[in-house]
Amino acid sequence: MADTLSIKFYLNTAKTTGDKTKIYCRIIADRKKSEFYTGFGIKEEFWNAESGRAYPDSDLNNEMTKIESKIYDIRRSILDSGLALTASNIVDYYKLKNTKTQRDHLNEDEIELLKKHHLNKNIVLQKIRDFFLFSCYTGLRFNDAYNLKMDDIVLDENGINIISIQMGKTNDYVQIPLIKEAMEIIKKYNSHPDREVLNFE
Prior knowledge:
8 strands, 39% helix
């Protein structure tokens, strides 16, 4: 089935740093595979190839479990949005989603480069890129941005468009001014059949 997913962690013996071998994650969806470096490495003697886990390093295993959880969240988001589920899209989505967590922030030049990149004219990647940029422009967490509705966008007393929502993680009510770049993304999908890139209804 097109929505089935297989995840496996393995040591890429061609990729070593010192005495550690890099741990890669291989994703198979719709009989096609894609893979990425997890950011972790381990000595080969402490790796169980059958289970795809380390021993006895429980902290590292927890990191593998976190990656799996993120991948399944991405799978659910892709299926909910009606997009085709492919291994390469999952990996690309994972990399975009985790860029900000691996570094403190993207600078303005990097955001501008991402904004202008044609992404090989891949429509799916362009929608993912727009979603990521919208999160950058608003400062919203992934889940809060994904659950955003048009009713959450209102005019303040000065006639400025703002997002007024209750944050999912903290339950705090916040008001976020929408800068021009964020509004441009919203307007881009005003009459687009795939407006669910921002889950607006």
